Every structure is written in C-alpha cells, then in structure tokens.
TrEMBL record:
It catalyses: guanosine(1835) in 23S rRNA + S-adenosyl-L-methionine = N(2)-methylguanosine(1835) in 23S rRNA + S-adenosyl-L-homocysteine + H(+). It comes from the Bacteria. InterPro entries: DNA_methylase_N6_adenine_CS, RLMG, RlmG_N, RsmC/RlmG, SAM-dependent_MTases_sf, Small_mtfrase_dom. It is found in: Cytoplasm. Residues 7-184 form the RlmG N-terminal domain. Belongs to the methyltransferase superfamily. RlmG family. One of its GO terms (molecular function) is nucleic acid binding. This is Ribosomal RNA large subunit methyltransferase G. The lineage of its organism: Bacteria, Pseudomonadati, Pseudomonadota, Gammaproteobacteria, Pseudomonadales. Its EC number is 2.1.1.174.
C-alpha cells in the first residue's frame, strides 16, 4: 500500500489505487476536486447521525474519507469504480460494511443530510440522478457538487438549478471548483430516461438508460460494423465485449439463431439496457448479461467468438489502454482458432497491435474512417 498515491485531507489519510491496478500507472485515483470538497465539508457543522450520499466517486476517495465519520451510501454506474472502492477499503483497513454501494440502475434510500457529487462526463446521468434525489433529501440538507474546472460545463450548473435549487460556484482552487446548491421544493419530475431510437436495418427499437454510450442514436462505429458481423456461426459461444446497449449481439443473434450469447460491460446502465433490448428483440431466447471488468474471470478457452467496439476513454482519461486490455482478455478467453471481431478508427493502428498476440489478423471491411478486423487465435 505504501507505493500508492496518498490522499490526505482533514478527514483521513488514504492510499488509493485506480482500477484496474496496472504496473507503472501514473494516473491517480483522486484529484484536487476531491481534496477541495473534503476539506470544505470538514469545516461544516453537520447534524448528529448525519447520513451521506456520494455520487460518481471515482475509486472511493470521497466515500472512504467520510466513512469513518458517518454512514455513507455511494452510487455510480462504473463497476471498475465500485471495485476500486472495495479494493481501497480493504487496503486501508476499513470494514467491509463502512460504505453501502448502490449501482446507478438501482434506487438508493434516503433521507440524506449530505450529498456530495462528482459531475459525471455524461450529463444525462447527472440529470437522472438529480431527478431521483426528489424526496430523498432531509430538511436543511447540504448538497455540493465538484469537478475539475476543465470538466465542468455550464450546463451542469443549469441542471443542478433546474432540479434542486440555486447554485453558487466557489473560487477555483488547484483548477478545481465547488458548486454549492440550496435545495428548494421542486418536482416531482418525470425522467426522460430510458430514451429510445429505431434502427431501419434491421428494424429494431433500442432502449438506452441515462449513461449508455451514444444514447440518442447508433454510433458510427457500430453502424459500420453491423453489415459485416459474422454469420453461419452454428452454436458458437459468442461474447459481446463492452456491449453498451447490446446492438452488436442483438443483430448478430438475428443472423445466428443457434449461437449462445453473453454480453459484458462495466456500466450497470449499459447491461440493464442490453438485457431489456434483448428481451424486446429475442423474447424468451436465453442470453447471459454480466456487469464486469471486461472478460475478467471468464474461463480461458471457453469462447468461440468475441465482438468488440472498444472504447477510447475511461471517465475523463482518453487513450487506447482499455482497448489493449480488452484484446488481451479476448485472447485469453478464446479457444484456439477462435476469433475476435472489432471495429476501430483507422488511425489507431489496431491491426499492428492485434498481430502481436493473434496468429492471424485480416481486414474484413473498411471505409474512410473505420476498419473492421478479424483476429484468429
């Protein structure tokens, strides 16, 4: 634990790791916004037996700091963030019951005296969370949001004001800012989520909960991939890795009625959306749905085909590190002769990266922006 970055605030001193734990990772599990928020909260006169709700905590920095002082419920949409919370909880010697985690697809139970939130990258998730806060705040509740200035759009403050009450921004400190909210009697509100859009070919309606990638319409990578998905798979075991709303598996399953599908994503709302869409599209046909760190824990050699439209960001961090890790996981899960099918931006050079691990890599199709590749183990 001693080699982990240390978050030191007025509440606690914690050694915190990011998930997944990676050798030589130079990124931290916390930032100046966490420090600013915690040090400010420590100056407040919180009520006895204060109940706290923490939203969108990255890897437990906020929840674990507060947990030694009051009961804490933490809620967010990232399985990796939840795993980070549990990992850091254990490695800092905190009891397993010190923080209750509630996935974003489930409801938390108030009333809460203190609500602390990181402004998420996807503002539709923030909107859904603010709608769910209706009726969950105690009288005179304290509500504070935070983020790094470069990640705090004006529309986040507009949402806080619309659903909760007036917002006062702090001065910036180490490029971080606090947003103080004065809750007022508002609502009730009707959530606009899940949203829906239709595909023309094949004709499908897709439901998308608030934090699903490309929630308003099919992303251009998947659009390029759909006409080239594998066919004639027989009873193959197919994994949709990073499934989002499940569109790749849904369409592939239409062409492969005997194949067995498992869908994986680290977003609770993505897996919730994928499961609902599968039932709408395929009725009683069986499939498995997993909120997971990619294919981590899947038995080696147990999969015949992996479909993947890899992401290029984790929260605010951009890069191909997640894609590389997904390729490694796919290689391990595939049987010898099994195939990984991916779509990717041409400039990312996935062909060369896949060749390092797979026996054969071939180009299935391409356009000006994307390539569809098949890598055989």
């Amino acid at each position: 634990m001693s080699d982990l970055p240390v978050l030191q605030t007025s509440f606690a001193t914690l050694a915190l790791a990011r998930m997944p734990v990676t050798r030589g990772d130079t990124l931290q599990a916390f930032d100046a916004a966490d420090e600013y928020l915690l040090n400010h909260v420590h100056t407040l006169a919180l009520p006895p037996n204060c109940r706290a709700l923490v939203l969108n905590d990255s890897f437990g920095a906020l929840a674990l700091s507060l947990a030694q002082h009051c009961p804490v419920t933490s809620s967010g949409d990232s399985y990796l963030a939840e795993q980070g919370l549990r990992y850091n909880q254990q490695h800092n010697g905190l009891g397993a019951s010190s923080v209750e985690f509630v996935p974003a697809c489930d409801r938390w139970q108030g009333p809460f005296d203190l609500v602390l939130m990181r402004i998420p990258k996807t503002l539709s998730l923030l909107e859904e969370q603010l709608i769910r806060l209706h009726g969950q705040l105690a009288a005179n509740a304290t509500v504070i949001a935070t983020g790094m200035v470069k990640h705090l759009p004006r529309s986040a403050g507009d949402l806080l004001e619309r659903y909760l009450g007036p917002v006062q921004a702090s001065l910036a400190q180490k490029k971080a800012r606090l947003l103080f909210v004065t809750p007022q009697a508002k609502g009730p509100f009707i959530s606009p989520y899940p949203s829906r859009y239709r595909l023309e070919q094949p004709a499908l309606e897709l439901r998308n909960h608030a934090n699903v990638f490309s929630r308003e319409g099919l992303d251009i990578g998947s659009r390029a991939f759909l006409p080239h998905l594998p066919r004639n798979l027989g009873n193959a075991r197919v994994a949709d890795l990073g499934c989002g709303n499940g569109v790749l598996a849904l369409v592939c399953a239409l062409h492969n009625p005997e194949a067995q599908f498992s869908l994986f994503d680290e977003s609770y709302m993505a897996v919730q959306s994928a499961a609902e869409n599968w039932r709408l599209c395929h009725g009683a046909r069986q499939a498995e749905f997993h909120v997971n760190d990619g294919l981590s824990g899947v038995a080696p050699g147990s999969v015949d085909v992996v479909l993947c439209n890899p992401p290029f960001h984790q929260q605010q961090v951009v890069g191909d590190h997640l894609a590389q890790r997904m390729f490694q996981q796919a290689h391990k899960a595939l049987r010898v002769g099994g195939e990984l099918w991916i779509v990717g931006n041409r400039h990312l050079g996935y062909h060369a990266k896949l060749k390092r691990a797979f026996r054969e890599v071939s180009l299935v199709a391409s356009n000006a922006k994307f390539v569809i590749l098949k890598a055989r183990k």
